[in-house]
Amino acid sequence: MARYEYGAGLADYVVRPVDGLWGVAGGATVSFWNASDSGTQYTDLQTTGGTPMTSVRADEYGFLPRFLGPDGIAGMWADVGGSARVWVEAHNLGGGGGSAESVLDWLNIRDYGAVGDGITNDAPAIQSAITAASAAGGGTLYVPAGRYLLNAALNWASNVNAIGAGDRVSILQSTNQNLDCITGTDISGVTLQALQLSGPGRGFGTGVRLTRFAAPATLNVSLRDVLIQSFGGDGVFWHESASSVLERVRVRNCGGIGFHQQAPQDTILGGASTSLIDCSAEGCVVAGYWLDGMSYTSLTGCAAQGSPSGYRLDSCTGVVLTACGAEQCTTGLTVYGGKGATVNGFVTKASDGTSVWLTNSTTGVVLNGVTEVSPTSSATTCLRTDAGSIATVLGLTAVKTNTLNGTCNRIDPGDGSIVLAGRTVVPSGGAAARMGTAVMVAGQVTVNTTAINSTSNVQLTIQTPGGTVGSVYVNTRTAGTSFVIKSTSSSDTSTVGWRIIDPS
Fold first, then answer.
1. What does the alpha-carbon distance between residue 410 and residue 219 come to, in Å, rounded to a whole number?
2. Nearest C-alpha neighbor of 102 from the set 111, 93, 110
3. Reduced to 3 DSSP states, what percent helix, strand and coil does the chain have, rounded to the nearest 5?
4. What are the angstrom distances between the C-alpha of 176 and each of 186, 209, 292, 424?
5. Among residues 106, 143, 8, 139, which one has the least CA distance to residue 66?
6. Beta strand pairing status for 188-198 and 218-229?
7. Which residue, 120, 308, 433, 471, has fewest beta-carbon neighbours within 10 Å?
8. If DSSP codes are grouped into helix, strand and coil, which group holds residue 131?
9. Is 123 helix (H, G, I), strand (E, B) or coil?
10. What's the CA gap between 209 and 261, in Å, rounded?
11. Long-range contact pairs involving 469-474 (C-beta distance under 8 Å, separation at least 24)
12. pLDDT at site 427
């Protein structure tokens, strides 16, 4: 009769009650019985390699290794010496001959020969685990702590997950500088979590490369708590991602782009509905984030540091950045074409070029609460909008000058004014007033307003003649403080209307 496979599954560590649930303690010895109480112990067990054993020992995390039960036995009662036993079932019920026919729960890659000693090439073993899970319709690979050297790319499959013990201890180390670490085509239903992917520090390889060929998109893929570093190419290259999530993913020191999402408009679904949450791109040679053709996608709490371009939205639709920032980037954010980009609470720090650049006739852009902090001496511009751009700016805090073309509607650009479709609506009161009236005494009057600068144009008109009326003119300007109106008649007491207009 056939032996059935057990172990390495979620249902297989329901043995010891903990807070109302069941779990296996690290290092526990588990025996198996034919009854929930008393009965006869099954001692005819085998490792997957065929070595006889009478019981199974959990690893330090409480995971059971895969093993073979007695001939023809499809279910057993598990016991760790507590007050109760728990029923566990084989993975390949009804299969016979040892071939799994249902989704596998957990597969420890070490059961497939992976060593994780930083010396052995573990690519063939891990690929075998991926293949086994895929053949069963899906499953989750457990990657224990260790450094697993890979001299070949891991070809991933749909519905196969991988979970490590943490991004500092479960390390997949690529050794071939021209190969990717993890690659997959037309995959869906995948989660990679608590892992580190390290490259050789040079070459053209990418940490995670997911591409679409025949499927409408790369669907339902999640990367969580993953550290990707030292690849010669991109950290993450994702083609036509949809309904997917990257959460707490950190990309460091890669030779290409940290997060590269590419969505050519060649499918009905395209790249859409993807979220990047609390991600970080540091020291990437080309850019931190580059979204090409993406739609309805959000970046929340993300950071870019030390790249020529922090964020680039290229021909995107409805992309939203919230509470994101760029530090030590030449250009913090570039919106290149597309429509409907919304940026909330974006901060650029130590930019050495342009903080935010809108170009290539991008439309419908809303910038809300963009703040420029400590730009370097070589920085030129805070906000640059090129011809054809249509944008609305609320609460911009700029250190460097703005270069505004196209249609840029501004509310509170820092001087209290409002600019709508290129027309300035001038406030008439307060410390930064741009228009008002003043009464001359003995042919002159001082107007106090912080809106005045050395190049301001001041328009003057006589509102109410008084005394001996002369011709009025601006005599002096003190930038940021006041200006003086004088008349050619020293006895002029007219009421003068004034308005400040600055060059754009």
1. 39
2. 93
3. 5, 50, 45
4. 24, 15, 28, 59
5. 8
6. parallel
7. 471
8. helix
9. helix
10. 10
11. 469/494, 470/443, 472/440, 472/496
12. 63
Task: Report the alpha-carbon distance of residue 390 to residue 410 in Å, rounded.
Answer: 11
Question: Contact at 8 Å (CB) between 45 and 70?
Answer: yes
Contact 384, 504 (CB under 8 A): no
- What pLDDT, on a 0 to 100 scale, did the predictor assign at position 96? 38
Residue type, 497: G
Nearest one of 438, 434, 437, 439 to 424, comparing CA atoms: 434
Nearest to 311 by CA among 296, 249, 228, 327: 327
Q: Given CA atoms 106, 109, 113, 115 in this order, what sign does their dihedral have?
A: negative
What residues in the chain have per-residue pLDDT under 50?
A: 10-22, 94-102, 415
Q: Are 183 and 205 in contact (CB under 8 A)?
A: no
Longest Cα separation, the chain: 121
> Taking the CB of residue 136, how many other CB atoms lie within 10 A of it?
21
CA nearest neighbour of 143 among 118, 124, 115, 178:
115
Q: Is the dihedral of CA 496, 499, 502, 504 positive or negative?
A: negative
**Tokens 């891990």 label which residue?**
126
Which residues face 33 on adjacent strands? 41, 77
DSSP-derived secondary structure letter, 129: H
pLDDT at residue 86, as a whole number: 77
For residue range 320-373, what is the model confidence (pLDDT) as tens digits?
A: 999 999 999 999 999 999 999 999 999 999 999 999 999 999 999 999 999 999
Q: Tell me if 169 sits within 8 A of 191, measured CB to CB.
A: no
Q: Is the dihedral of CA 389, 393, 398, 404 positive or negative?
A: positive
- Please give the pLDDT value at position 211: 94
Whole-number pLDDT of residue 279: 98
